[in-house]
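Q: What changes when protoporphyrin IX containing FE is included in the input?
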Amino acid sequence: MGRTALRDGLALFGLAFLAFAVWWFAAHAVTRGLGAVSGDAEAQGRFAGNGGLGPLGLYLHMIFGGIISLLALLQWAGPVRRRWPLVHRLSGRLVAGVAALTAVGGLTYIALEGTIGGPQMSAGFTLYGVLMLVAAVQAPRLAMAGGYTRHRRWAVRLIVLCLASWLYRVHYGVFYAIQCPDDAAACVPWSTPEFSGLFDLIQNWAFYLPYLILAEIWLRLTPNDPRKDR
Ligand code: HEM
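A: The predicted holo structure follows.
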């Protein structure tokens, strides 16, 4: 087996494993969003409020968000990109478009309803949504303009942001499993039902900012091919 085939095989195996890990969250988000849109009170939960545009935006963002959590992995797959560039281009437009809708839905809810954690949580999630929106515009725009190097940078940022909501739940899962495996009340005051504990406050930013910084470091360490820039 050649080195390229081995590298492609390992990359696809890694992404398939990640897809398996993300699957439960994507399925939860899409199922809850669909239930909420169709009027299921349990799926709507505390988000229903007095109804209107805010909750509707949030329900739709769950459906769109679940889709991009998985689709972003397909965009990441180098072998797919090299062997089927048309698939990459079409699914890239889809990911970017759906990511933009996800961000708009989440931002609408924050603007109209706020968040359970108050101003600090709203600030962290607003920056998250704005960054996702910018990346969703920049990645396809630069690809169409032929700026491969800058397209790659924005595409990597977009993929990180698409996976960040899943990482948010993974952080909580690990924290609760270590800190209070038998009784969630034992996690207070680190994490409270009002999302006001120290862990909650850190989480408002920690599910995307550190990963974006790591991505920037990785982008600077890995060479670009300037010949691909038109
Ligand atoms: C990767 C995409 C995303 C997915 C899959 C996703 C999924 C979800 C889900 C399922 C919920 C309901 C809570 C739960 O059942 O866990 C939720 C809540 C929320 N999401 Fe997202 N989301 C995504 C991206 C975003 C973005 C980009 C923003 C920011 C604009 C955002 C803002 C919010 C807010 C504000 C809440 C409610 C917070 C509260 O409890 O008050 N989400 N999200």
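Observations recorded in class: The chain has nine helices and no strands.
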